[in-house]
Amino acid sequence: MASEIEVGTKYIPDMSKTEIEDLRKQFTESSLKVIKDNIDRMKKSWPNRPKEMEYFDEISNLFGKRQQEISEQKQAGKKVIGYTCMFAPIELIIAAGAIPVRVGSGWYDSAKLGDRIMPVEVCPVIRSTVGAKMVHLSPFLELSDAVITPLTCDGRTKLSEILADYKTIWRMSPPRVKDDAHALQLWKEEMMVIKQKIEELTGTKITRENLKEAIEKLQKATKAFRRLQEIRKGPPVITGRDAMLVNQTSLWDDIERWTQKTDELCDVLEKRVEEKDYATYPDTPRVMITGTPMIWPDSWKVPNLIEEANPKGLLAVDEQCSGDRILYDPVGVDEWTMSDMLNAVTERYLMACTCPCFTSDNGNEDRVNWIMDRIKEYKVDGVIYYVVRGCILYAMEYARIKRVLDRMNIPVYYLDTEYTREDVGQMKTRIEAFLEMLEARIDI
Ligand code: SF4
Ligand code: SF4
């Protein structure tokens, strides 16, 4: 019967409402199991895990407390603005009284569903986001009144077109050459268009007062974020997975509460440094991950393998926009005038970003420098270069990064994978061989 069919769009096929509902339930249950399994594994790996981590465990449930809170705030009149990538200006969203949520999807099950309309050559982040939309799986995407979609790669560009059938889409085109003289000007124009759209949607004018307040809120979050990252430079008082979980929950949590909870966790961890109460052996090989973003919960596959391997590794730091790059750079304001604040926001979202979507004669030097600095600061023994199949940007920059790491005498391993659990056994063998080699180098 016609009423039982959800009519498709330009891309999405017609599907029966029963199938949509069955798949949504099945994927939600499977996701809840993955979330629980990840948290159980993190607890098992770190028997003395502080009780302060329980807050982040709760927020990590994508179908739990935070979804409920956002739904209630939306019912009370607040707007929700989703974003698919880190170029979206969070300060402007918060200044207008809206709720920002990152909506890129990391579900393996929904990536398989995306295969129905896209070939496997398309990166799984995109297939998964589309698959999630097909069955209304992502609570934050469903709750979004508008979605900011920066057009950074081909996948994201076409994603914005597909999602436009469901949502109000605000595209942003970041310049691909950020050190050109006119790049900042172009980007400022993009910012001003988004600012106006946010104001129209929310009915709230972004003023000097509310923008200052929003910038200060995010600056405090950055301070807490950096405090945690600073602790990770020392002896291992927190596992890499737990730190990643803390960092990643900032993408959908209430940012003020997240800041407070992160500071509370840091208080405990700083004491643990003094007490030498470690989360793992101090001489565990320290690994950096760089590459494609790892999105909670399914992409915990690789971090789980690294920190549960034999021999074990410690995920000391990452260079990913799902981790160290989320909040590291604050918006730096000299004068709290409207014009200065808007310039500072514009600059922050362009110049601080090390995404490989940029190109330059110096070969994305900012990313290279970021990686080199982190290797030294976090005493990294080896780097895992993580790429999901179809992610051309990261795959192509590998040769550039490997050359630099070779010169630093830092071993690097190229780990390519898919959104699947089927390659876990094979990946375990590859990761353990890499960690054995790192351990042997440390022992020499
Ligand atoms: S890797 Fe680049 S394009 Fe992809 S989400 Fe991160 S910032 Fe955006
Ligand atoms: S993983 Fe790579 S290809 Fe996929 S959306 Fe992100 S940058 Fe684009």
Describe the protein in words.
The protein has 444 residues and is an alpha/beta fold. It has helices at residues 17-45, 53-59, 65-75, 90-95, 108-114, 124-134, 139-143, 154-163, 183-202, 208-232, 240-249, 255-275, 301-308, 338-351, 365-377, 392-408, 424-443, and strands at 5-6, 15-16, 80-83, 99-102, 146-150, 168-172, 286-291, 314-319, 382-388, 412-417. The chain has one domain (2-443). Helix content is 53%, strand content 11%. The strands form 3 sheets. Strands 4-3-5-6 form a 4-stranded parallel beta sheet, sandwiched between helices. Helix 2 crosses helix 11 (240-249) and helix 13 (301-308) crosses helix 17. The protein is globular, with a radius of gyration of 21 Å. The structure holds iron/sulfur cluster (2 copies). One iron/sulfur cluster binds next to helix 6, helix 8 and helix 16. One iron/sulfur cluster (SF4) binds at residues 85-86, 152-153, 293, 321, 355, 357.
Please outline what is shown here.
The chain is an alpha/beta fold and 444 residues long. It has helices at 17-45, 53-59, 65-75, 90-95, 108-114, 124-134, 139-143, 154-163, 183-202, 208-232, 240-249, 255-275, 301-308, 338-351, 365-377, 392-408, 424-443; strands spanning 5-6, 15-16, 80-83, 99-102, 146-150, 168-172, 286-291, 314-319, 382-388, 412-417. Helix 2 crosses helix 11, helix 6 (124-134) runs parallel beside helix 8 and helix 13 (301-308) packs across helix 17 (424-443).
